[in-house]
Amino acid sequence: MKLTKERIVDAGMAVFAEVGYQNLSMRQVADRLDAHAGSLYYHVRGKEELLALMADRVCRRAYDAGTAALAALPSATTWQDRVQAQATALRAEIKEHPGGAQLLAESPGMLSTGAFSLMERLLRTLLDGGLPAAHCGIAADTLLSHVTGFVLQEQNRPTAPPAVTAELYADLCERFPLVMGDLIPRLSDDEKFSRSVRLLCTGFAALD
């Protein structure tokens, strides 16, 4: 099968899911394609460009998912609901790719039309919602950083909680009653994410 940039990005995503950001190499990607490593450089200049292309693909797919989510909202929906729809779509798309949050957080700073599209639409949503232009940039950056950071925690979470003795558990409960106790509700990740985005929007709306 003919080697193309799209196939190289496909292979890069597959290798990345297995070995992570730091360990991905062009040779591994070439092996996945049953090709010589040198032949990849006709299409992609190196690992940094490949990582940028992979991050751009995630952003473009998140943009398309956000478009569908926004289209499903009632016409009279609030700007907060529109922000929520975009943030939720981005989180879902990042989670589709093992290590996707790390990819977006650490990929090289190259021009990405996918990332620009996400930012442009989010900025327009905030402006149309009545937020002062002076605050829209930091608000959009904060939202996108929050989504990436939230998923980074989800994807890096241990599969099993650490084992503790009854004595240690009792000590922790005594020393950290708010963390370990029942006063603060335990929320699902979905509910925590939804509320956190709402909380950010409430803060943005209070700016003048």
TrEMBL record:
Domain named HTH tetR-type: residues: 2-62
Pfam families from the entry? TetR_C_1, TetR_N
Entry GO MF terms: DNA-binding transcription factor activity; transcription cis-regulatory region binding
What does the record list as GO biological process?
A: negative regulation of DNA-templated transcription
Q: Which SUPFAM superfamilies match?
A: Homeodomain-like, Tetracyclin repressor-like, C-terminal domain
- DNA-binding region located at which positions? 25-44
Keyword field: DNA-binding, Transcription, Transcription regulation
Q: Which InterPro entries match?
A: DNA-bd_HTH_TetR-type_CS, Homeodomain-like_sf, HTH-type_TetR-like_transc_reg, HTH_TetR, Repressor_TetR_C, Tet_transcr_reg_TetR-rel_C_sf
Which named protein is this? Answer: AcrR family transcriptional regulator
- Species per Swiss-Prot/TrEMBL record: Streptomyces murinus
